[in-house]
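Need residues for this backbone.
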């Protein structure tokens, strides 16, 4: 008797994106509501350039303000629905969004960056090749959560022009 295994789906390459200070303006503490959420000027154009190169997009964001009681899961969902719509209209849909609601003040979590759990889940679920993928963030912990899995990183200044930092990726 012969067995044949199903063909393996092709690996894809991903851009893992931090949210605050990379996609939207980070005012310095928390983005609490949709009213405080504003897309940075070059972010959507940068995503279009990256999409043309065949990357998918995964948002990876710490939202420790939830653990602190500053805002709710619902407020985060409202922001993320809005962001998904913007990205869809831009022709650069977000394949998925992972957020960690935890913070050290209420307990340790493997998902909160620099923990790697969110990126690990995305790699497994979407069959992502880490070696061809990148993490873009404005804090070292953003890069650390992915580098441990073999994902290269790009560190940008908080609220910097994303488009100026993607040349090494394309
Ligand atoms: Mg950030």
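Answer:
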């Amino acid at each position: 008797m012969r067995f044949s295994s199903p063909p393996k789906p092709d690996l894809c390459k991903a851009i893992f994106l931090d949210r605050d200070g990379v996609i939207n303006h980070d005012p310095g503490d928390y983005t609490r509501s949709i009213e405080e959420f504003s897309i940075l000027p070059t972010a959507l154009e940068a995503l279009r350039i990256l999409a043309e190169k065949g990357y998918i997009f995964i948002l990876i964001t710490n939202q420790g303000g939830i653990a602190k009681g500053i805002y709710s899961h619902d407020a985060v969902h409202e922001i993320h629905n809005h962001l998904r719509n913007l990205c869809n209209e831009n022709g650069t849909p977000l394949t998925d969004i992972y957020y960690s609601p935890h913070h050290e003040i209420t307990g340790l979590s493997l998902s909160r960056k620099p923990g790697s759990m969110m990126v690990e889940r995305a790699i497994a679920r979407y069959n992502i090749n880490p070696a061809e993928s990148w993490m873009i963030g404005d804090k070292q912990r953003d890069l650390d959560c992915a580098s441990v899995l073999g994902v290269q990183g790009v560190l940008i200044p908080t609220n910097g022009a994303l488009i100026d930092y993607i040349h090494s990726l394309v």
